[in-house]
Design goal:
Number of helices: 4
Number of strands: 19
Shape: elongated
CATH class of the largest domain: Alpha Beta
Number of domains: 2
CATH superfamily of the largest domain: DNA Polymerase III, subunit A, domain 2
Structural class: alpha+beta
Strand content: over 45%
Length: 253
């Protein structure tokens, strides 16, 4: 078996896949000695997704080469991932000769197994680099709090303005008939907050792109939000076992 791993929580795996499938048609995986990774751009190049799951995220991790890459349909993987329950482990095994990914759910209580196969897609997994920009604002909050902020903004408009002051973070959106204005500080609900350089720092982002990222809140406890003046937004959702799901979202001008 060229690549095989066992992830300890099938429901968490399901939420991770559901997050990615919202904005991608296919998922390019790279398995390396360091762990399993996804690094890809949406077709319109407005969002970059980076998923890093180190070997410590898995109960078992086996790789017979320096690297194995494979591509699967996001929709087909999502359909299978939905079948996982909170009692299940999930095993992923690459079957290259059959051109498929074997996915097995193993009940931790009864040892009952259920196996599905997802065909591999043809294509080359690109080696993409994350944007090299200096983001002067960084804050950490509970993932659910971030999700609530975006859900509030979504009720009003299609664009959110992030504004960082020295002592607080604000989110605004204005339409001819409605307006939303949220003010957030350390302890309410920010866990940490840091701004370097001059303030205020402003940048605008599309609500639909922000909303697509909030599914990750189900799989993550916390999120680190970073941005700069009219620069991309970087959202880092912390996953169990040291994993991280990163969204880079382009700013609106």
């Amino acid at each position: 078996m060229p690549f095989r791993c066992i992830y300890p929580a099938a429901t968490k795996f399901k939420y991770i896949v559901q997050t990615i499938v919202k904005i991608l048609d296919e998922i390019p995986f790279s398995a390396t000695p360091d762990g399993l990774e996804v690094r890809t751009l949406t077709p319109e190049k407005t969002t970059m997704i980076v998923l890093r799951m180190p070997t410590t995220s898995f109960e078992e991790y086996q790789l017979e080469a320096e690297e194995k890459t494979f591509i699967v349909s996001a929709d087909e993987l999502n359909k299978v991932a939905k079948r996982g329950t909170r009692n299940d482990l999930v095993e992923l095994a690459l079957e290259e000769e059959q051109r498929r990914l074997r996915i097995t759910f193993i009940d931790k209580k009864t040892s009952v197994t259920r196996t599905f196969y997802v065909p591999l897609r043809e294509g080359v997994v690109e080696r993409l680099s994350e944007p090299q920009v200096e983001l002067t604002v960084s804050m950490k909050m509970l993932a659910d709090d971030f999700k609530n902020i975006i859900n509030d903004v979504k009720l009003v408009g299609d664009e959110a303005e992030f504004v960082a002051y020295e002592d607080r973070f604000e989110v605004r959106t204005v339409t001819p008939q409605r307006e939303y204005h949220g003010v957030f500080e350390v302890g309410n609900p920010l866990i940490s907050y840091d701004v370097t350089g001059q303030t205020p720092v402003r940048s605008k982002y599309a609500i639909d792109l922000l909303k697509a990222s909030t599914k990750a809140a189900t799989a993550a406890d916390t999120v680190t939000v970073e941005f700069g003046e009219a620069l991309p937004l970087r959202l880092s959702f912390d996953l169990p076992g040291g994993g991280v799901l990163i969204y880079w979202i382009t700013p609106r001008t």
